[in-house]
TrEMBL record:
This is beta-mannosidase. Residues 35-212 form the Beta-mannosidase-like galactose-binding domain. The keyword Secreted does not apply. Its EC number is 3.2.1.25. Pfam families: Glyco_hydro_2_N2. It catalyses: Hydrolysis of terminal, non-reducing beta-D-mannose residues in beta-D-mannosides. Keywords: Glycosidase, Hydrolase, Signal. InterPro entries: Beta-gal/glucu_dom_sf, Beta-mannosidase-like_N2, Beta-mannosidase_GH2, Galactose-bd-like_sf, GH, Ig-like_fold. Residues 1-24 form the signal peptide. GO terms for biological process: glycoprotein catabolic process. It comes from the Eukaryota. It comes from Drosophila kikkawai. PANTHER family: BETA-MANNOSIDASE (PTHR43730).
Length: 915
């Protein structure tokens, strides 16, 4: 129910919607959807099957999918030439109106022509361009021809680089050419998604295209583009501080009538009449007050509901001598769904440095989540509703409450931010700059200012938007590589300061310092935080006692809590792993008949990390019995081990960070990375086809609001048991919990002993209690022979959470047995009452001895391409019988399954093999 209503609003809210075609009072928006594409020399011409589109998407039927094996290199020539998109349209009417051609996103450098006349050029894919075209249009029945000629991004990036060099503008790193074939050069000279030039977890994918809608707009005076709403509260009222941003062609000040409809909030529409607006900065500012008792607040996931209220804004614009009448296209509108919350970034000086955490509705939040990369490496496919919703819903279901939109990607679609609002995912938004020196050149700076203003105005009202960081890792990059830059170092630093000071200034358009200030912006991530912004560049942006850190420690033992600094906020950290076997088979276009050599060679070619497989193999070797040299001889084992190592190391880190919430020391941790753009060894939790890696299943538990954590403290030989509640209740009073620690031998399903500890814990509280490890061992058995199960029960003896502690690295376990594990398909249910069908299976897993990290994998050749989820996976089983559910949510048929369709791996099997 809720979802359907939400979708409806999304549809209405799209501002280029065509619902008002026939209403002559409103701005007419004629979206251009039928295009053809031709090559530079016209040797190829094809109609474009769908919009938005780009060359790789439109030419898929001719040359294959860019993401098919080898095509990232084989199809690079497509990005090495110009392509022309063209369309024809009738002019809807030729009255006294203004007519503009508005291009919401062109990727990237293009020349735009109407009826053969050059209208203008675009060179920033993050900017909306609009051109007055009334004077060029032919009256009906003549057709107008629009051509967008998109220049090669490879050629353009290097041409711009050479030109600036010639003009004496200082050009900065990353230098080029690179020896490796998996990146293209000079990305910093184009305002194009930076990851398109290739990187560690993605291909070179130099798209060219129309990645957002193109429309012809007929209007009289102005068009409403965005409304920014900032919200604050006092005891009796919520106040919406609104700014309506208009675009106009007027050359003198004009008048605006505005109405705001919000039936859940206001008894009658809010009305403003005859407001004079300046044509040089056409913004209408106003405030709306809402009695406090009409509002249910918006909370981040895990802390409360995500209540959203639609508000419809309608404006009529007219000049004094064109008072609006029924036949003038004066009215334009916009629907927003606002959420009522307050949000602050708390940076208080304390004994170790300065805090860095978010306080929402007055409540400190431990921020946990993941870094998001575009849902598709081709920008025109990055906003697909189905894939974005799948990922954000998955983040929500894994108990995440923040998503960081990384600076090497995009400013995401409306759809993305609406879904983040809906799922309670706070958004940390980087601006689209990453690890490079950008040129301080007049046109470049002007374009970046436009990019900043347009995107800030569009995004800032969302209740999910928590922070804007102006770039990813540039300060870190400049500080770390300073000595390599030699004489240029100071110059680079000055240019950086000048460019980003300008951007920070531009962001003041949404800061609301005079109202209820929004957090940030923060100049760079990682950095020392927002507070010290006026200072010089920090000598160590990674100082753990200030701001945020990007933590890359994959050369150290990730399973030891000592590896991790007690940082304030870890906005990036993670471990790499391989996607499951069926994902590789599918990427190779086949099922189980794909050979091992083919898979191994694809894995090798997709490994773009400069360090290769070393970090992954090293993490595995700390814990698991594995001979790294021969990984390709047993790929299934390598995949399973890599996923286990990723999950275990990440879990250790997150648990340590959560246990450091006392005193606000650590208040956030974001895993790198949620999703994937192709099938490759990467740091993702969810693979390219949407399959969950083991870490994802574990994240549901290690990110849950109520958790019991067990971390070994080497200096005291204690096991620290931490009980944490990250939640919010009106009544903060303490509740009773019981922690049971069961000691098992690897040889027996029955716990040998149990120690209980009672805790009383209130909302958003945390308690750490050290217990000597000696107390938890069993008789004269060594640590190699035992493991601990830690169960958290509430006052009704319901299990709230469960955790395990393995006192030695798994490769050193002694006495482990073959669990004699069986899986049966015990039940099945096909719900075909609604479309799509839901198929669910209950799998009965039986064991006779403890089974370590049971990993279930669907291997049915026809079903592996269907999205499916196990209720749990990678679990340690001490119960003789355990039921696991397997769910297929999106089907048009009832499925059947046998136990042969489920493959099982356990650590037991590999430990026994080794002996
Ligand atoms: C046009 O360009 C394509 C691809 O760049 C090339 O293969 C073809 O030979 C060219 N055709 C002509 C007629 O020049
Ligand atoms: C692009 O074309 C130029 C010649 O115009 C050539 O030197 C270069 O190698 C080509 N690059 C790619 C990636 O095809
Ligand atoms: C129409 O294009 C002109 C530039 O040609 C621009 O100044 C104006 O703001 C545009 N109008 C709208 C509604 O975007
Ligand atoms: C609370 O806000 C409302 C609306 O802005 C205002 O009218 C009222 O005076 C404020 N009350 C207090 C106590 O500040
Ligand atoms: C109504 O608006 C149209 C279009 O702007 C204009 O041509 C016409 O003169 C106006 N009529 C009146 C009565 O103002
Ligand atoms: C942590 O922050 C909260 C919320 O601002 C504050 O109430 C509390 O005193 C802080 N704790 C410490 C130990 O500084
Ligand atoms: C265990 O708890 C003690 C006391 O609270 C603390 O000093 C120590 O750092 C903790 N160790 C770990 C690994 O959490």
């Amino acid at each position: 129910m809720a979802i359907n209503w939400f979708r409806l609003i999304c549809l209405l809210g799209v501002f280029y919607s065509t619902i008002h075609h026939n209403d002559a009072k409103t701005v007419l928006i004629q979206e251009l959807t039928k295009w053809t594409l031709r090559s530079e020399n016209s040797s190829l011409e094809t109609s474009v099957p769908r919009m938005p589109s780009g060359v790789y998407t439109a030419l898929k039927d001719f040359y294959g999918d860019l993401l098919d094996p080898g095509n990232d290199v084989a199809l690079r020539w497509i990005a090495n030439q110009s392509w022309i998109f063209s369309t024809k349209f009738d002019s809807a009417e030729m009255g006294h109106e203004m007519v503009n051609l508005t291009l919401h996103g062109i990727d990237t450098v293009s020349q735009v022509r109407v009826n053969g006349q050059l209208l203008g050029e675009t060179d920033n894919m993050f900017v909306r361009y609009s051109f007055a075209i009334g004077h060029l249009l032919l009256p009906s029945p003549n057709q107008n021809i629009l051509e967008v000629e998109i220049l090669s991004p490879i050629q353009e990036a290097s041409r711009r680089f050479r030109e600036l060099e010639k003009e004496g503008v200082f050009t900065g790193p990353p230098s080029c050419p690179r020896a490796r074939g998996d990146v293209e050069c000079h990305r910093n000279y184009l305002r194009k998604m930076q990851m398109s030039f290739g990187g560690e977890w993605n291909p070179v994918a130099l798209s060219s295209g129309i990645w957002k809608p193109v429309a012809v707009e007929y209007y009289t005076v102005a068009v409403l583009r965005d409304v920014d709403v900032a919200i604050k509260r006092n005891k009796t009222y919520w106040t919406l501080d609104c700014r309506a941003f208009l675009d106009t062609t007027a050359s003198k000040d004009f008048y605006v009538d505005l109405k705001a409809y919000a039936s859940d909030l206001l008894d009658k529409p809010f009305v403003l009449e005859n407001q004079l607006v300046s044509f040089t900065s056409p913004v209408l500012e106003f405030q709306i007050s809402i009695p406090e008792d009409r509002v249910t607040m918006w909370w981040p996931n895990g802390y409360g509901k995500q209540m959203l209220y639609p508000i419809l804004f309608k404006v009529k614009c007219y000049t004094s001598d064109a008072v609006p009448n029924l036949s003038s296209r004066t009215e334009s509108q916009k629907i927003l769904k606002v959420g009522f919350r307050t949000l602050e970034l708390v940076e208080n000086t304390d004994q170790s440095g300065r805090t860095f955490f978010f306080r929402v509705n007055g409540h400190p939040i431990f921020t946990k989540g993941a870094n998001y990369i575009p849902a598709h490496t081709l920008p025109e496919l990055s906003a697909e509703t189905e894939s974005v919703e799948y990922l954000l819903k998955a983040a929500h279901q894994a108990n995440m409450n923040m998503i960081r939109v990384w600076g090497g990607g995009l400013y995401e679609s409306e759809n993305f931010y609406n879904l983040a609002d809906f799922y309670g995912l706070l958004v940390w938004q980087d601006m689209a700059f990453s690890r490079a020196a950008y040129p301080l050149e007049k046109d470049f700076v002007a374009s970046v200012c436009l990019e900043t203003a347009q995107n800030a105005q569009r995004l800032s009202y969302h209740p999910s938007l928590a922070l804007i960081a102006a770039n990813n890792e540039i300060e870190l990059f400049l500080v770390t590589n300073k000595s390599d830059f030699g004489e240029g170092a100071n110059r680079i630093e000055n240019d950086y300061n000048a460019l980003f000071d300008t951007i920070m200034g531009e962001l003041s358009i949404i800061s609301r310092n005079d109202f209820s200030p929004r957090p940030g912006p923060m100049i760079s991530t990682p950095s020392l935080g927002v507070a010290p912004y006026a200072d010089d560049m920090p000598t160590n942006p990674q100082d753990p006692n200030y701001g945020d850190v990007h933590l890359w420690v994959d050369d150290k033992d990730g399973f030891s809590p000592e590896t991790y600094p007690h940082a304030r906020f870890v906005s990036e950290f993670g471990y790499a792993s391989l996607p499951m076997l069926s994902t590789w088979q599918r990427a190779l276009g086949g099922g189980s008949n794909v050979s091992n050599e083919e898979i191994a060679s694809l894995i090798r070619s997709r490994q773009h990390d400069i360090k290769g497989f070393i970090p992954m193999l090293q993490q595995i070797s700390y814990q698991l019995p594995f001979t790294p040299q021969n990984w390709d001889e047993n790929i299934e084992k390598f995949i399973y081990f890599s996923q286990v190592a990723q999950a275990m190391a990440t879990k250790t880190a997150i648990e340590l960070f959560r246990s450091l919430r006392t005193g606000n020391q650590t208040m956030g941790a974001l895993i790198w990375q949620l999703n994937d753009v192709w099938v490759a060894p990467t740091w993702s939790c969810i693979d390219f086809y949407g399959n969950f890696k083991l870490i994802y299943y574990w994240a549901k538990e290690f990110l849950a609001s109520k958790c019991v954590i067990a971390l070994y403290d080497a200096s005291s030989n204690n096991l620290n048991i931490t009980l944490t509640r990250e939640d919010y209740a009106d009544h903060l009073d303490s509740q009773f919990y019981n922690v049971l620690i069961n000691t098992y031998l690897w040889t027996d399903l029955i716990a040998k002993k149990t120690i209980a500890r009672a805790f009383g814990l209130g909302s958003n509280q945390l308690e750490v209690r050290p217990i000597p490890l000696e107390l938890l061992l069993y008789e004269n058995h060594s640590k190699e022979e035992i493991f601990l199960e830690i169960v958290l029960e509430d006052k009704d003896k319901e299990t709230v959470a469960r955790n395990y502690y393995y006192p030695v690295p798994m490769k050193n376990i002694s006495g482990i047995k073959d669990p004699e594990l069986t899986v049966q398909v015990a039940g099945q249910d096909c719900n075909n009452a609604q479309s799509p069908y839901t198929n669910s299976f209950s799998l009965l897993v039986t064991v006779r001895f403890p089974a370590l990290l049971v990993y279930l994998e669907l291997v049915h050749p026809d079903y592996i391409t269907k999205r499916h989820t196990f209720s749990i996976n990678g679990f340690t089983q001490t119960e003789p019988r355990k039921t696991v559910y397997l769910l297929f949510e999106d089907d048009s048929e009832c499925l059947t399954l046998t136990s042969d369709d489920i493959k099982v791996q356990t650590i037991n099997q590999y430990l026994l093999q080794n002996n």
